[in-house]
Amino acid sequence: MPNSSSVSEFLLLAFADTRELQLLHFGLFLGIYLAALLGNGLILTAVACDHRLHTPMYFFLLNLAILDLGCISTTLPKAMANTLWDTRAISYEGCAAQVLFVFFLAGAEYSLLTVMAYDRYVAICKPLHYGSLLGSRACTQMAAAAWGSGFVHAVLHTANTFSLPLCQGNVVDQFFCEIPQILKLSCSNSYLREAGVLVVSVSLVFGCFVFIVLSYVQVFRAVLRMPSEQGRHKAFSMCLPHMVVVSLFVSTVMFAYLKRPSISSPSLDLMAAVLYSVVPPAVNPLIYSMRNQELKDALWKLMTRCVSDAANFQSASADDS
């Protein structure tokens, strides 16, 4: 039986068999990828350039946009390149790098969403202490902790997964390297080690989820006690995008990893992976900008400035010619 030392590359799951469908999938995912780049790039630029957005909430949103860009850029470009060139191959090192970065960025994003829930809790339930509890130093430390926890878990899972002997070939039934699919290639008696690591991770994930739920229970109680309808509306507008993003992230990941094996199939696994790795990074900028007037104003100001600069440059070029 082959082991991990004899595997030099893996074969990923193809989106389609015919060339026409391959090109159709390439165009579809290229559009989604460009939309994710544009949306998250605009949020990054708006938050960085508009001093009115230099607050803890938008600092965490900037970090979320960076993580979303990294997450979708880890999986989709390689899949699109394979589709365009009609190949399925990814090197052993490239597969390990994908696993590392997917776990790192997804784990850091989940930790950051937990921190953002705390930010909303303090802003609504303890507004008088907001400046002291969420100063610039505290925000930097919490963001660093989110990134660091994601990296530690990613290194742990990646090292553990790729130290297992591979006894079932090199065909990965997914469009990117995913730990459950790689574990299917390992010897059956090697699952126990990864199972132990997964138990620790699930415990931490569940702990963060409980923290988010409890934070929003306190937030809702505080909002419902507000005498002003305008104040309640503003508070809900601040919290709704984060709740939608958390719900989208958690529900798609749970669907991908906790569905019953009896209903599992390559097409369903592919759809689940697209839902949690491609859809959230593409739609998160839209979710956050829809009900946030400050962010919409900053984005409109940014786009107006870009159009004005482009018009001035074109006018200057015409005058020079």
By DSSP (H or I, 4+ residues per run), the number of helices equals 11
The CA-CA distance between the termini, in Å, is: 71 Å
**N-to-C SSE series?**
EHHEHHHHHHHHH
Tell me the overall shape. globular
Radius of gyration: 22 Å
Q: Summarize the main sheet.
A: 2 strands, antiparallel
The main sheet orders its strands as 1-2
DSSP strand count: 2
Structural class by helix and strand composition = mainly alpha
Proportion of helical residues: over 70%
Membrane topology: Multi-pass membrane protein
Family: Belongs to the G-protein coupled receptor 1 family.
Transmembrane segments: 23-45, 57-76, 96-118, 138-156, 195-217, 238-258, 270-288
Domain G-protein coupled receptors family 1 profile: 39-288
Explain what this protein looks like in three dimensions:
The chain is an all-alpha fold and 321 residues long. It has helices at 19-49, 56-84, 92-125, 130-133, 136-161, 179-183, 191-224, 229-258, 266-277, 279-290, 293-320, and strands at residues 9-11, 89-91. Strands 1-2 form a two-stranded antiparallel sheet. The longest helix is centred in the middle third of the chain and has 34 residues, at 92-125. The radius of gyration is 22 Å and the shape is globular. Residues 1-5 have low confidence and may be disordered. Its main location: membrane.
Name its key features.
321 residues
In short, what is this structure?
Helix content is 76%, strand content 2%. It is mainly α and 321 residues long.
Q: Secondary-structure blueprint of this entry?
A:
Blueprint: E1 9-11, H1 19-49, H2 56-84, E2 89-91, H3 92-125, H4 130-133, H5 136-161, H6 179-183, H7 191-224, H8 229-258, H9 266-277, H10 279-290, H11 293-320
Antiparallel strand pairs: 1-2
Helix pairs in contact: 1-2, 1-10, 1-11, 2-3, 2-10, 3-5, 3-7, 3-8, 5-7, 8-9, 8-10
Function: Odorant receptor.
Subcellular location: Cell membrane
Protein name: Olfactory receptor
